[in-house]
């Protein structure tokens, strides 16, 4: 087996796994919490890619197997000028010398269809209740009850963000509707996006915290990273039914 054909075969075999994993990531994206980035060299990611690829190819091989069983019992047989079953070619562990241009095109078309189908199926499955029951606690952590209320459209989250920008006992803070949150691996808020937010100043006066509202236009959208924030506070408000 030449290196070029071995590499092509490995990529074609794993491609549905990558597509299924990517579809899962797209399907699990919500309105409130951003998907966490994958860890480098994550064993979980590698396992999911390989498992999804194996599952997709098992289904694909079953399709050809069922077709052969039906043909063996007197079903209608159509003779093709190419070998339609790509797994027979891969199982030979070498590049076939007599593979025609049409046969090679079919192998690529089949791989493309299997890849696209796997990605779409896993994107749909990511929304299903049996899947979200397992994945939602891992995605949202302590934000899970809030995220469910927001996704249901019954509540909104108001964020109060105290920044590290301050001088002489006063710090700038923001209040607005939480548009997006991102959590890190420790379930701490890594990034927050507020919309329709107001800016105010927090002072320490005689050992007490005092809020001083400032005049100015409402800020349409602002993003704050963790290194810019001293503290967060979230308030969940129920949306009045219309």
Question: Can you walk me through this structure?
Answer:
With 242 residues, the protein is an alpha+beta fold. It folds into 2 domains: 3-139, no CATH class; 154-238, SH3 type barrels. It is built from 6 helices and 6 strands. The longest helix has 30 residues, at 43-72. 15% of the residues are buried. The mean pLDDT is 82.
Radius of gyration, in Å, reads 27 Å
Q: Indicate the percent of residues in helices.
A: 40-55%
By DSSP, the count of extended strands is 6
Principal-axes geometry comes out as elongated
Largest sheet: 6 strands, antiparallel
Order of H and E elements: HHHHHHEEEEEE
**Number of helical elements:** 6
Please render the helix and strand layout as text.
Blueprint: H1 3-27, H2 43-72, H3 86-91, H4 101-125, H5 129-140, H6 144-151, E1 155-167, E2 170-183, E3 189-205, E4 208-213, E5 219-225, E6 229-238
Antiparallel strand pairs: 1-2, 1-6, 2-3, 3-4, 3-5
Task: Considering the chains and any ligands shown, give keywords for the structure.
alpha+beta, 2 domains, 6 helices
In short:
The protein has 242 residues and is α+β, with helices and mostly antiparallel strands.
């Amino acid at each position: 087996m030449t290196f070029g054909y071995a590499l092509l075969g490995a990529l074609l075999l794993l491609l549905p796994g990558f597509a299924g994993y990517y579809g899962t990531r797209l399907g699990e994206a919500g309105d409130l919490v951003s998907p966490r980035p994958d860890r480098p060299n994550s064993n979980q990611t590698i396992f999911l890619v390989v498992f999804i690829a194996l599952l997709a190819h098992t289904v694909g091989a079953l399709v050809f197997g069922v077709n052969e069983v039906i043909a063996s019992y007197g079903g209608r047989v159509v003779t093709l000028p190419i070998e339609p079953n790509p797994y027979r070619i891969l199982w030979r562990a070498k590049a076939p010398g007599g593979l025609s241009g049409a046969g090679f095109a079919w192998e690529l078309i089949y791989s493309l269809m299997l890849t696209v189908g796997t990605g779409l199926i896993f994107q749909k499955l990511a929304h299903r209740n049996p899947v979200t029951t397992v994945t939602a606690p891992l995605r949202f952590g302590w934000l899970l009850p809030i995220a469910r209320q927001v996704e249901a459209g019954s509540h909104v989250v108001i964020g109060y963000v105290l920044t590290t920008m301050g001088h002489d006992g006063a710090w700038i803070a923001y209040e607005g509707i939480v548009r997006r949150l991102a959590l890190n691996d420790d379930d701490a808020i890594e990034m927050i996006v507020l919309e329709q937010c107001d800016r105010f100043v927090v002072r320490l006066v005689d050992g007490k915290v005092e809020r001083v509202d400032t005049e100015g236009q409402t800020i349409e959208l602002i993003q704050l990273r963790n290194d810019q924030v001293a503290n967060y506070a979230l308030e969940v408000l129920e949306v009045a039914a219309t």
